[in-house]
């Protein structure tokens, strides 16, 4: 088996310009991206309905979503539906709904994270017990539909190597995998390469998020994640090292760029394609 890495983009790159989902897809296609990663929510959002936000509702007909992407020659690499592993109510419902939507639009993975800080009165063992209960409720839906649940580094437990490994071992399921985010891992103060070594054989989707030196100096060790980074190749992340490690485990999938502007999206695509060609 050989490793095949392709480059996609998370639609967060148009968020600060208050642009719509349609604009994000059309512009990404013109740039040369063949994969996109959209963000979905339950219910409705006024800004989304009015076209000022790329986030879309799962109330929208998934066939329309798939047809629109097909018309512009792009495919969906994964659904950004950040359900909360510590929330037994909407967190579980959101994850299950996202699985059905991913199946309908042909996306192979849904990103999930634990981004809610537990009450201080709760012990660590209690926190993991809640996550286990929620995963046991969520994962049968993913197994039945053949969709991967990609745990992302984006919280106090997922962004630490020791604790994300414990999360991944809470439930024995072939669909419980990792959406690797090197930028969030780095900002949390964890070594992103040590993290990758620990989870490499379980990675099904990658957030290609670079972190600028200025961002690193301001927030490293103070946060556990960030929505977007700088252009890939402009920051502190050693992309050649990450690609080499994933090739060693025959990773075949998408690097979904997470940057903040259209200009950064263009340069990220050029940089990563050039690096992959040289390697």
Question: Would you spell out the secondary-structure blueprint of this structure?
Answer:
Elements: E1 5-10, H1 21-31, E2 35-37, E3 40-41, H2 46-49, E4 56-57, H3 62-71, E5 75-76, E6 79-84, H4 90-105, E7 109-113, H5 124-145, E8 148-152, H6 161-168, E9 176-181, H7 182-187, H8 192-199, E10 203-208, H9 213-219, H10 239-248, E11 253-257, H11 262-278
Parallel strand pairs: 1-2, 1-11, 2-5, 3-4, 6-7, 7-8, 8-9, 9-10, 10-11
Helix pairs in contact: 4-5
Explain how this protein is built.
This protein is α/β, with parallel strands linked by helices. It has a single domain (5-278), classed as Alpha-Beta Barrel (TIM Barrel), CATH 3.20.20.150. 43% of the residues lie in helices and 17% in strands. It contains 11 helices and 11 strands. The protein has helices at 21-31, 46-49, 62-71, 90-105, 124-145, 161-168, 182-187, 192-199, 213-219, 239-248, 262-278, and strands at residues 5-10, 35-37, 40-41, 56-57, 75-76, 79-84, 109-113, 148-152, 176-181, 203-208, 253-257. The protein has a 9-stranded parallel beta sheet. It has a two-stranded parallel ribbon with strand order 3-4. Strand 7 (109-113), helix 5 and strand 8 form a beta-alpha-beta unit. Helix 4 packs parallel to helix 5. The chain is globular and about 50 Å long.
């Amino acid at each position: 088996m050989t490793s095949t890495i392709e480059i996609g983009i998370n639609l967060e790159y148009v968020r600060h310009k208050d642009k719509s989902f349609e604009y994000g897809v059309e512009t990404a296609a013109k740039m040369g991206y063949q994969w996109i990663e959209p963000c979905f929510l339950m219910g409705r959002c006024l800004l989304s309905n009015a076209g000022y936000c790329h986030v879309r509702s799962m109330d929208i007909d998934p066939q329309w979503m798939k047809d629109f992407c097909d018309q512009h020659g792009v495919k969906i690499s994964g659904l950004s539906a950040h359900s909360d592993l510590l929330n037994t109510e909407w967190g579980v419902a959101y994850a299950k709904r996202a699985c059905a939507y991913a199946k309908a639009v042909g996306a192979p993975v849904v990103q999930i994270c634990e981004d809610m800080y537990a009450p201080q009165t709760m012990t660590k063992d209690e926190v993991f017990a809640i996550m286990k209960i929620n995963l046991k409720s969520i994962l049968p839906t993913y197994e039945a539909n053949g969709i991967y649940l990609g745990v992302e580094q984006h919280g106090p437990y997922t962004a630490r190597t020791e604790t994300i490994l414990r999360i991944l071992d809470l439930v024995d399921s072939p669909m419980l995998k990792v959406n690797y985010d090197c930028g969030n891992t780095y900002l949390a103060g964890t070594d992103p390469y040590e993290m990758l070594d620990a989870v490499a054989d379980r990675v099904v989707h990658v957030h290609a998020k670079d972190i600028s030196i200025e961002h690193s100096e301001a927030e490293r060790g103070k946060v556990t994640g960030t929505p977007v980074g700088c252009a890939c190749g402009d920051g502190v992340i050693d992309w050649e090292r990450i690609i080499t490690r994933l090739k060693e485990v025959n990773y075949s999938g998408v690097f979904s760029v997470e940057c903040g502007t259209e200009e950064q999206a263009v340069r990220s695509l050029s940089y990563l394609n050039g690096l992959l060609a040289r390697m």
